[in-house]
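[step 3/7] inverse_fold.run input=structure_tokens len=485
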């Protein structure tokens, strides 16, 4: 069976006429580069999962890991059905693409319009990874209180009605934002501003948790692992966004890494002087992610020295933006709005200042640059793109949630009893740490040696009485189970 026949069988059936371009006409080095970057970018999915898992209380932590993987599965299918054609069809209006490529039809012989040395099929799976990762970010805004199946359904429709539209506006040459000259190399608007706005809208729509007491991460090791995966995947995602392994990709990776490093150090220093001269591991991780968010739209347009400004300013603004949820009266569980929403806005605006023609010209792209090149209008275009992206995501997210929530059996909010017991037990049927959860809800004294006398647990998970327990008839302290473990 020749290549054309195989393509017909895969993408259009026996009656499909294919003029598949032989793979030898595509640069094998470029194809290999994009295959590897696509596979390695996927590490961000478990990265986000581990980060949120560690941040959450243990009784609702496993559900966040599972939702991240479900997002991967659901959005991959959505992308195959309709997402690709809405985002990347080669014709369309200013708002959205056409439906000529449903089920990836009619692209087997098509080179990517972003890089003619790459087949469109390969470009499709590359952009699919962005579509997969983006909804997982929203989950942190409503962690510990939303039911599993309604959230999965929300992910499907949010990807279609929000991510696909913003991606088309930003990266498709027919999109209105692309046409006016707004610059966004790695996804400041479609990935970060959109998820920050969505998390805020979601938090408003489902309401606050029953217990909004601030608690430290239940597993800082998982937060560290998640941050490491995210940092690694982000370097590759930004570097691969140009779809070509050249000097510009190298520069992108350098700028991304410098911004993350500057953000991590900046946030750590702020927390050090604010909190009793202690070095915060969580602050380091949060700062690194805010630095990554801020540099994303600019990573392919700025010099390494400019990227340090993105990391420092991004971490500084996002750190103080965490206070905003008190004024907004929103229970944004893991500060998705302040990190991704505000960080994306900062990055978009700074791109209008620091973008330079010479950086983009390394691989032949022509831009007008930003303020450093005397293009004073660029910040205005960036602001228009930012406001439109934020507004579209916020309004559409609220509408999607409103409609789904009205369908019988698909209400988002877990009951107070389910929230108290933990979504892992009520939604998944088991817990991240079964032994700890059993100690939390049963009499702990039945599970320890008889020579240790331990006070029974109260409803909130703390030991009753004075918090002192006995070992060999001597009072000791510290043997108790806390709610967040």
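[step 3/7] decode complete -> sequence:
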């Amino acid at each position: 069976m020749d290549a054309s026949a195989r393509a017909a069988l895969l993408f259009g059936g026996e009656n499909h006429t294919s003029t598949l371009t032989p793979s030898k006409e595509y640069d094998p080095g470029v194809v290999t580069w994009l295959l590897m970057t696509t596979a390695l970018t996927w590490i961000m999915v478990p990265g986000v999962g581990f980060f949120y898992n560690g941040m959450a209380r243990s009784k609702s932590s496993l559900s966040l890991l599972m939702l991240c993987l479900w997002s991967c599965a659901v959005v991959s299918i959505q992308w195959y059905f309709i997402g690709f054609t809405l985002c990347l069809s080669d014709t369309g209006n200013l708002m959205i693409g056409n439906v000529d490529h449903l089920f990836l039809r009619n692209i087997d012989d098509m080179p990517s319009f972003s890089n003619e040395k790459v087949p469109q099929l390969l470009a499709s799976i590359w952009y699919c990874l962005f579509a997969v990762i983006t909804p997982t970010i929203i989950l942190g805004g409503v962690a510990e209180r939303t039911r599993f199946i309604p959230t999965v359904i929300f992910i499907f429709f949010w990807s279609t009605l929000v991510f696909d539209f913003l991606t088309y506006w930003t990266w498709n040459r027919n999109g209105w934002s692309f046409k006016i000259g707004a610059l966004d190399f790695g996804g400041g608007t479609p990935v970060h501003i959109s998820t920050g706005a969505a998390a805020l809208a979601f938090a408003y729509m489902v309401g606050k948790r029953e217990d909004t007491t601030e608690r430290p991460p239940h597993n800082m090791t998982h937060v560290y692992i998640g941050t490491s995966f995210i940092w690694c995947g982000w370097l590759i995602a930004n570097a691969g966004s140009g779809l070509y392994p050249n000097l510009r990709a190298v520069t992108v990776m350098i700028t991304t890494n410098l911004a993350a490093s500057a953000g991590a150090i900046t946030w750590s220093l702020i927390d050090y002087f604010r909190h009793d001269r202690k070095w915060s591991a969580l602050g380091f991780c949060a700062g690194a992610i805010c630095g990554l968010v801020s540099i994303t739209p600019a990573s392919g347009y700025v010099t390494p020295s400019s990227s340090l400004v993105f990391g420092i300013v991004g971490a500084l603004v996002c750190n103080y933006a965490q206070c905003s949820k008190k004024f907004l009266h929103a229970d944004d569980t893991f500060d998705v709005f302040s990190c991704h929403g505000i960080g994306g806005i900062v990055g978009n605006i700074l791109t209008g200042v620091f973008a330079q023609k010479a950086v983009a010209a390394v691989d032949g792209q022509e831009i007008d640059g930003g303020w450093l090149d005397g293009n004073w209008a660029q910040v205005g275009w960036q602001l228009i793109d930012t406001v439109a992206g934020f507004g579209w995501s916020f309004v559409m997210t609220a509408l999607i949630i409103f409609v789904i929530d009205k369908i019988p059996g698909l209400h988002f909010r877990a009951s107070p009893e389910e929230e108290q017991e933990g979504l892992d037990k009520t939604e998944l049927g088991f817990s991240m740490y079964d032994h700890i959860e059993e100690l939390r809800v049963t009499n702990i004294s039945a599970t320890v040696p008889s020579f240790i006398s331990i006070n029974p647990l109260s409803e909130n998970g703390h030991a009753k009485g004075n918090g002192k327990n006995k070992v060999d008839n001597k009072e000791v302290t510290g043997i108790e189970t806390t709610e967040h473990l």
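[step 4/7] annotate
Confidence is low (pLDDT under 50) at residues 6-21, 443-485.
Residues 378-406 form the longest helix (29 residues).
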